[in-house]
Write a structure and sequence with these properties.
heterodimer, A: 306 residues, mainly alpha, MetI-like fold, B: 543 residues, alpha+beta, D-Maltodextrin-Binding Protein, domain 2, Dipeptide-binding Protein, domain 3, seven-stranded mixed beta sheet, four-stranded mixed beta sheet, 19 strands, 20% strand, peptide transmembrane transporter activity (chain B), SBP_5_dom (chain B)
Chain lengths: 306, 543
């Protein structure tokens, strides 16, 4: 287990190096960020010279990358075009994104698992079909439609929630969190349903029933625990993607999180900010994957990592 | 069995509600909506400035809107007429349009308590102009004597410029300084209302970086807190000018997407937005969403398309006139912009002094018959005529419509060519790599007819993307700059404009109008000639 973990962590290093380089090259390919910073006019030469020198934009790609790596090894994520350290920009936005992710995951787990279990128990009946059809609906609608619709209905018309979440309070984040989690709710409920249906047919469930255990105990202890293994895997990877994949939702609800920051930085061709933000996302994703793989072994001793 | 699973469902429901309630409770203290908020404070849409709020280093709207509140200039542009009125200056005198004597009010102070003197202006201008300081507003000082000596001689700015200060600026006393320009500039006083000409206190020069979090103000408001979600401005107690703010606090909430700000204004969760998203303009949706709380006003922006200087087929003047007359401006404005634009009849925006209605004459009017006749007289255009535009500005439908109009009238194969963003388009224009025609928008820096001619069409001017070069035009500009009165200058500028009509380096399309909306708790919302909301004059309804 320990050696497995260490091996996995060591494997992350080349992945991170490769990721930074690809990102760096991609942003570099976007072109000269100093063009277009001064409105319809070309910028004054003095401004361009200072700007380029500050961010090493006058150097070839590999040299720029070298500068960046050098800083990175010293724990410096670089400087945004506004002049603030990228690490600072990320630090003030991460709490909001984490809050949003937690709300989304809670929505997923509570609604998704409950709906899945109910559908599984009543396989083929009305409730099962209801869950099936409603999740199909959610999966097939793009998130920007759900987001804008929810904003219009619950934010503007019904006024249950604030339409946007610029300040980042938990109450404001409920609606975007729910929208963000909506797609995964659909997946989780389907995963749970199928696995519950399968497990209900297994021998140990029949034994449990034969022993005369109550139905609630059979389902909550014997069935659900085994049914949740695929769900835990899914949630693990979902945390990784939610932390960075919220660009659309964050934009619609004006959530001042990482997604919005990445979007703005790409628009400004602010290379160091983009690379810094995405780098952190890559790390989160890798770590979450590792945790999920380790959890596998814990949840199901048959899957060993040694 | 049934009963039991129903009980489970109920239990799951209860857990869900409890958790949700717990989540709500956690953030309960922060204020969200504005409903019921009667304090004399407003929230307005903001976007993150590219640079710290320094007057000489801001050329974009996000920072510019905020700078308006925290800078006080020598002249102030009238919100309704755009006419320059004396603000900090008590007099700007000149006998020859080349030597200007500026007297400023005494006893005025910055928000940090230090006095605003003639030196505050001269130092700030020298700082902004000096090449190695890398300030975006540097080019505003080009007319001032000694500008060239303060600029970097090479692209990388390795060698220090010859001079650190502009020789044309001299402090005479605490309240008086002189400006000498290298050529005659009759409209210099009109220019002085731009933020790049605002004064800076001494504290700025010792630590420009402090402006990231705490810019020092000379205007009606001062920054009270700057963070990633809000730029908050409160009244500047040291401001003694005529245009003091009506509200105590203005909070610029940062939005990356104007649609979100629009939604907030509709829901009265934000007080003012200065952008209406294009999809809301369709069918005047926004006017019903914001019934009784919306407005439009012409602003000093002209949209045009330029002829590529490297496309030899486009040199013929008959062809250029034919293309211009083939564009059905009125229909495009109606169908694409829902009449939030006005068809252009001149190279100059109607909001400025010196605009002459119909200056472009028949050549800016849609006339398919005449266009075909002129096209027949020209050598024609072979191959595909591309219309380059930047995709990020929502110009796609417009480019397609213009191309279709040209195609249907003249039979030229016109195709829109999208560049991913404004920077890419700008980059290609700078390098003179584009063929065909290209989109070109111009937002004025100061309300003068000159600003729509000289920076875009004078030989070698920074924004002369069409590489227009007509000595007669340049001579008229010089003559106008030396004219003794504003009227005479404007007449001469109008004569210069006629050369543009003859040669058609670019085709005027239409003028922009500012469209904006506000919440039900504020009133007196309007924009100035620049399309910027006059934030200081907004009031909160008393009820």
């Amino acid at each position: 287990m320990v050696s497995y973990t260490i091996r996995r962590i060591l494997q992350m290093i080349p992945v991170l190096l490769g990721a930074t380089f690809i990102l760096f090259a991609a942003v570099f390919a976007l072109g000269d960020p100093s063009a277009g910073r001064c409105g319809q006019r070309p910028c004054p030469p003095g401004y361009i010279a200072k700007f380029r020198a500050e961010y090493h934009l006058d150097q070839p790609l590999l040299v720029q990358y070298g500068y960046y790596l050098g800083k990175l090894f010293r724990g410096d994520l670089g400087t945004s075009f506004y002049g603030n350290p990228v690490a600072h920009e990320l630090a003030i936005r991460y709490p909001t994104t984490i809050k949003l992710t937690v709300i989304a995951i809670l929505c997923e787990v509570i609604i998704g698992v409950a709906a899945g279990v109910l559908a599984g128990i009543r396989k083929g009946r009305f409730l099962d079909n209801l869950v099936l059809i409603s999740t199909l609906l959610v999966i097939s609608i793009p998130v920007f439609v759900i987001g804008n619709l929810a904003q219009l209905v619950f934010g503007v018309k019904l006024e249950w929630f604030p339409p946007t979440a610029g300040q980042g309070s938990l109450y404001e984040l409920l609606l975007p969190g729910f929208v963000l989690g909506a797609l995964s709710v659909a997946y989780i409920s389907r995963l749970t349903r199928n696995s519950v249906v399968e497990n209900l047919r297994t021998d140990y469930v029949r034994t449990a029933r034969a022993k005369g255990l109550s139905n609630a105990r059979v389902i909550s202890v014997h069935t659900l625990r085994n049914s949740l293994i695929p769900v835990v895997t899914f949630i693990g990877t979902d945390i990784g993607s939610l932390m960075g994949g919220a660009i659309v939702t964050e934009r619609i609800f004006n959530v001042n999180g990482i997604g919005n920051f990445i979007f703005r930085s790409i628009n400004q061709k602010d290379g160091q900010s983009v690379v810094g933000a995405v780098l952190i996302l890559v790390v989160v994703y890798l770590v979450m994957n590792l945790i999920v793989d380790l959890l596998y072994g814990v949840l199901d001793p048959r899957i060993s990592n040694d | 069995m049934r009963g039991r699973s129903r009980a489970m469902a109920a239990a799951a429901g209860i857990i869900a509600v409890t958790l949700t309630a717990a989540a709500c409770g956690g953030g309960g203290s922060s204020s969200s909506g504005n409903s019921g908020n009667t304090a004399n404070e407003i929230t307005v849409r903001g976007c993150t400035p590219q640079n710290p709020l320094v007057g000489g280093n801001t050329a974009e709207v996000c920072g510019g809107n905020m700078l308006d509140l925290i800078t006080r200039k020598l002249v102030h542009y009238n919100v309704d007429t755009a006419a320059p009125e004396l603000d900090l200056a008590t007099a700007i005198d000149t006998k020859d349009n080349q030597h200007f004597d500026v007297k400023i009010q005494s006893g005025q102070k910055f928000s940090d308590g230090t006095p605003i003197t003639a030196k505050s202006f001269v130092d700030a201008w020298n700082y902004t102009a000096y090449g190695p300081n890398g300030q975006q507003g540097s080019y505003f000082f080009e007319p001032i004597e000694g500008y060239a000596a303060t600029q970097c001689t090479d692209d990388e700015c390795k060698a220090k410029p010859k001079a650190e200060t502009l020789s044309g600026l001299k402090v005479k006393s605490d309240t008086e300084f002189t400006i000498t320009t290298s050529e005659k500039v009759s409209n210099l006083p009109v220019r002085l209302g731009y933020a790049a000409f605002s004064p800076q206190p001494e504290a700025f020069f010792s630590n420009p970086d402090s402006y990231k979090t705490k810019p020092i103000s000379s205007g009606p408001y001062q920054a009270s807190s700057i963070n990633d979600t809000d730029y908050v401005f409160t009244k500047n107690p040291n401001y003694q000018g005529k245009w003091a703010g009506k509200t105590d606090k203005i909070d610029f909430r940062i939005y990356n997407d104007p649609s979100a700000a629009y939604t907030d204004v509709v829901a009265n969760n934000l007080d003012v937005t200065d952008i209406i998203p294009p999809d809301q303009l369709v069918g005047d949706q926004w006017k019903s969403d914001l019934d009784g709380r919306n407005g439009t006003k012409p602003q000093g922006v002209i949209q045009a398309f330029g002829f590529s200087p490297i496309d030899s087929q486009l040199k013929n003047v008959n062809l250029r006139h034919a293309i211009s007359m083939a564009v059905d401006r009125a229909t495009i404005v109606k169908q694409i912009y829902n009449n939030t634009r006005t068809p252009a009849d001149s190279f100059v925006s109607p909001v400025v002094q010196g605009y002459k209605a119909g200056a472009c004459g028949q050549y800016c009017e849609y006339n398919p018959t005449e266009a075909k006749a002129l096209y027949a007289k020209s050598p024609g255009y072979k191959g595909t005529l591309t219309f380059a535009y930047n995709q990020d500005g929502g110009h796609g439908p417009m480019a397609t419509a213009v191309c279709n109009s040209i195609k249907n009238t003249l039979g030229i194969d016109c195709q829109p060519k999208s560049e991913p963003d404004f920077k890419t388009l700008r980059d290609q224009l700078n390098k003179r790599e584009l063929k065909g025609i290209f989109r070109s928008g111009w937002q004025m820096d100061y309300p003068s007819i000159e600003n729509f001619l000289a920076p875009i069409y004078a030989k070698g001017a920074a924004s002369n993307d069409t590489a227009y070069d007509n000595p007669k035009f340049d001579a008229k500009l010089a003559q106008a700059a030396a004219a003794p009165t504003e009227e005479e200058a404007n007449t001469l500028y109008q004569e210069a404009e006629q050369y543009l009509v003859q040669d058609m380096p670019a085709v005027p399309e239409w003028y922009d109008e500012a469209a904006y909306g506000w919440s039900n708790r504020v009133e007196n919302v309007k924009t100035n000639a620049f399309g910027v909301i006059d934030y200081a004059s907004i009031t909160v309804k008393s009820s």
